[in-house]
Amino acid sequence: KQKTAYEISACLVGSEMCIRDRLLLIDIIQEMETEENFNVPRYQDIDKLLLRPSNFAPQDFEPGIELKTMFMQYSKILVIGAGGLGCEILKDLALSGFRDIHVIDMDKIELTNLNRQFLFREKDIGRYKAEVAAEFVEKRVKGVKVTPHKCKIQDLDKEFYEQFQVIIAGLDNMEARRWINSMVHSLVEYDDENKPLRETIRPLIDGGTEGFRGQARIIWPFQSACFECTIETVKRVGNYNFCTIAETPRKPEHCIAYAQLIQWDKEFPGKKIDTDSPQDMQWIFKKAEERAQKYGIVGVTYMLTLGVVKNIIPNIASTNALISAACVNEAFKAMTFCSQILDNYMMFMGQTGIYTMTDAIQRKENCLVCSVKATSIQFTPETTLNEVIEHLKTNQQFSLQQPSLLNEKEQILAIFNPPQLYQLHKDKLDLTLKELEEKGYINSGCKLYVTDISLVNQIAILLKLSLIHI
């Protein structure tokens, strides 16, 4: 052990020692890789990036041991999701020099996860993904600390998210992506001239996969296009005609949707489906299977049931590996400025070839999150408030879940929780906009302030009344 880790690792190259001796040397190297010791073989490639100049780096890149030390000692990064993409991201981060990692995931490990989520073993089934992933990475990569959080991202406040310099999201649903996108924008603070303070701008790196396709993007709050800017391009999953589901199912998805939306309420009135419960998912799967057999439909599987009910799509391990590498690569560059950062969207189309393409997506002028300009909506005076709310829920520009509305005087127009307030204001839902105007609640050109569980901050919408509904 008087030799350096570099010298010991050199013994492994080209030697003919037995497996036992090789494993002994590997154990010695791992023991030497303490939190204070950054000069270990694992980081040789990092040295090439951080200790010497580069023609690819921006002007403010200053290579040297100070940069490497600062990066490895003080970088603090958050990973959201410990599934197929999250496992790869955690592994890549730990091997890229990040030593203080936090991970959020409320899901527990299931048997179906084991084919691609390589941080888990059969003995881990039933345990929390975040907890097991943290234990595995810490054990395998000495000196790295991974802190698990077994909760929803919405359960953690702004103070929690403020402690990280970079956030990587490996999520499988749109609602969580929208919420974390809204959160990173809410963390930005401004100076006396109303300019964003640079130290409060935390990049959000978003990765996603769909079969052989994948994408990685970096979002700089109020500087580049955010997730909400492109929400209208997001593919919707699970929107099926109700008559088709109930009367003429033609696809396996129709059978699953029938079990989820119709049979569940008949069997368990008032009980909400727990999408993380294997028992609930098995019940829906069995009922969907029975309906599929009745109509001669094939293709209902447990995995497809999870995909339809949880609004997720299957993962392929190789796509996860590629996209996670791209995400961690951008995180490394964002922390060290060792190379030019992605601008700002990369897509991989593995079903047609092995090439990737990048695109600089532009900010949306009337984005609900990153624009200061209020979005306009136009209705006829005969439109009811309930119809306005339904528009905010179903129109792809908004896609809100349960919006509550305030007027410019901060009077409640619509609210659904708590139940006491809903009962107090529910009569307004059936009023037309003309009737609300006559009562002094609104007028054409007024602002409505909207809150929704999919967004962190309140948004403003400009309401216009017209004889023609646009």
**Given the helix and strand composition, which structural class is it?**
alpha/beta
> Into which percent range does the helicity of residues fall?
25-40%
Strand content: 5-15%
Low-confidence stretches: none
Per the principal axes of the C-alpha atoms, what is the gross shape?
Answer: globular
Secondary structure tally: strands: 13
Strands side by side in the biggest sheet: 3-2-1-4-5-6-7-8
Listing every helix as H and every strand as E from the N terminus to the C terminus, the arrangement reads: HHHHEHEHEHEHEEHHHHHEEEHEEHHEE
Largest sheet: 8 strands, mixed
Between the first and last Cα atoms, what is the distance in angstroms? 76 Å
The count of helical stretches stands at 16
Please provide a written account of the structure:
- This protein is α/β, with parallel strands linked by helices and 470 residues long.
- Helix content is 36%, strand content 14%.
- The protein has helices at residues 5-12, 19-32, 44-50, 65-74, 84-95, 129-140, 158-161, 174-186, 242-246, 252-267, 278-294, 302-309, 317-336, 385-394, 419-425, 433-438, and strands at 77-80, 100-104, 145-149, 166-169, 204-210, 213-219, 345-349, 356-359, 375-379, 404-406, 412-414, 446-451, 459-465.
- Strands 3-2-1-4-5-6-7-8 form an 8-stranded mixed β-sheet, with helices on both faces.
- The N and C termini lie far apart (76 Å).
- The mean pLDDT is 85.
What would a concise description of this structure say?
With 470 residues, the chain is of the alpha/beta class. Helix content is 36%, strand content 14%.
